[in-house]
Amino acid sequence: MSKAWIRAKLPEFVRDMFRTFCMACKSLEEQFTSFDREGAVTFTTLRDLVGQEMDKGLLWRMKDTAHHVFRNDPETSLTGQFLDWGLGYIFHETIKLKEDAYQTLTYAPWFLALRGRDLPEDERVVVEELFHVLKQTEESMRREIDRIRFIMSQCRRLLPIYLARHRENALLARYLFSQNALVREVFGSDYELLVNSVYGEHPERMYILAAQSLRLGGWVAEASQAVQSAFAINATDRLVLQEKKILDNWSARMAP
Questions:
Q1: Fold (topology level) of 167-256
Q2: How far is CA 19 from CA 14, 23, 116, 171, in A?
Q3: Which of 85, 105, 179, 218 has minimal CB crowding within 10 Å?
Q4: pTM to 2 decimals?
């Protein structure tokens, strides 16, 4: 991909970067919660999240998209550079977690079975020493999870700062509206900070941009929902009233 093409498509790449981050956070946190509760993660889930060169998983696509965004945006700040590194770090650290999960899934049952057998003394000693290494692998998984969680939390702090430059990105606004439940789940108590950082004193702007994007894409019912959300926030704003009038006229023409 050429730099010129990526820069022309930057709004799409920014939306995709944010989308994959939200999806990755949800999937990874589900695995981490499982580890907190049961001391185990699902190897196949981590394998699919990472993927491979010819079939890239969600985390691989997130890392690549981040590189496209932050290494081709001529106005990328230090915040963007931090995000580029952080999203890549999540990918690489998850690879390590996946490999450790494979070790525990594949070999822990075998070593446990060996420990229950009546083995010669020299073999029993080897089993205990190797089993100790396997226990260290489980400890490594905890450290890897803690590091990934920390980097995800830092990315949640940095994204509102970076995305403030993209407050006119209609595709981003549309995603924030359409996948609002997921975004709220990922950002938690920082959701309001995200919206306020991007849209400042005009949070209705997110809904107007989303409505415009949805309307132009032919999703009139969804666009009407977005504009109603904007109207509920600021019923006197000129852009809100303008978009509402357009959609009301469309709905009137489409009525039987």
A1: 1.25.40
A2: 9, 6, 48, 11
A3: 218
A4: 0.90
